[in-house]
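Hi L.,

As promised, Cation diffusion facilitator family transporter:
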Amino acid sequence: MQGVQRIAAASIVVGLLVLGLKFAAWWLTGSIALFSDALESIVNVVTAVVSLLAVRTSAKPADAEHPYGHGKAEYFSAVVVGVFIVVAALVILSEAWQGYRDPRPLDAAPAGLLVNALAGAVNGVWCWVLIHRGRRLRSPALVADGRHLLTDVISSVGVLIGVLLATATGWAVLDPALAALVAVNVLWSGWALVRESVGGLMDAAVPEHLLTRIREVISLNADGALEAHDVRTRHAGRHTFVEFHLVVPGETTVAAAHEICDRLERALQAELEPAHITIHVEPEDKAKHSGIVVL
């Protein structure tokens, strides 16, 4: 978890650097589209701060008031980020409308465009780090931050191309039009982020491919049992919760059943770490003959 917190803290530094570069690019060019790009970077900084607070909260161990831990804090952070994204999009749309009503000629200063391109490159590298490390460390907050940065990178590339076209053609209206497109892109990314986070808050099951793997691990490591059924799963931040019923022969002793459960817990922990496993042992007359067959 310390690695997650270090990456989240570094995101704030990167976000502030990119924010400064993009505002410098806007100041050098006067482009509304570049201004909208800079406004989106403010959201990136807010996102990084919220993500850091979330991963610190989720790292707290379980206590009497939160016996299942604090992992869902990361989903709350993603919802907050989604709200900030919507606000930023509305501000950008307002600026685009003003630019459409009162178009101004652009000064596509090469220095300004180069500064914006540098900011986009920094964001591109960092979003790859966030998504790659976030998935490896199983941190929804880092992945959400990285995915939002990816939309920022795409927006920046489109804005740069558009500003060059607006300058070359003399069509000043292209500048606010591009700003409006950036706003739509920001809104779409915010909606996707909130939708995914709400799924986590609502205890959505793990993805189908992971559920299939969980079933395989149970089947291969439940020697001595007959079947497993009623498998239920959910995520809470980095933590995966798995519950199921394990059917054993009627003559199985408590000690033997406990040994089977211990073996299953070790195997699932190795596959899902960190994970919380709950197993309800049942005699063979409770078998449903429709669950996981033990190999």
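Strands lie at 227-236, 239-248, 275-283, 292-293.

Thanks again for sending the construct details.

K.
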